[in-house]
Amino acid sequence: MSGLPDFKSVVKDVSAQMRSLRESQPELMTAFSQLAAAGTRDGALSKKTRELVALGIAVASRCDDCIGFHVQALVRLGTTRAELEDVLGTAVYMGGGPSMMYATHALAAFDTFSV
């Protein structure tokens, strides 16, 4: 699909910038890393379920960088396309037409990270 981000590059580039922030803002980045770990750990909900929720929020919030990171994690966790499409349906329900457009971005990211 043309016009869509190259999600491997997006994740790589954002990761590089976050490394830079780790040097200049170590307390902030440590706290953010701890927040991310706590927000995606296994608990009453599995790590995969929590990542699916995060993806739905990323789509509804229209954040391509977030979509890239969460889809990459979901592929690593063995998420199926059907599971991804279900959460995208809920994100579109909650976010309307703009979320539909970003749902297509999530599908493109899934295809990218699934190969």
What does this structure look like?
The model has no long low-confidence stretch (mean pLDDT 96). 82% of the residues lie in helices and 0% in strands. With 115 residues, the protein is mostly helical. The relative contact order is 0.16. The chain contains five helices and no strands. The chain has one domain: AhpD-like (Up-down Bundle). It comes from Cupriavidus laharis. This is Carboxymuconolactone decarboxylase-like domain-containing protein. It holds the Pfam family CMD. InterPro entries: AhpD-like (IPR029032), AhpD_core (IPR004675), CMD-like (IPR003779).
Structural descriptors:
mainly alpha; 82% helix; CMD-like; AhpD-like; AhpD_core
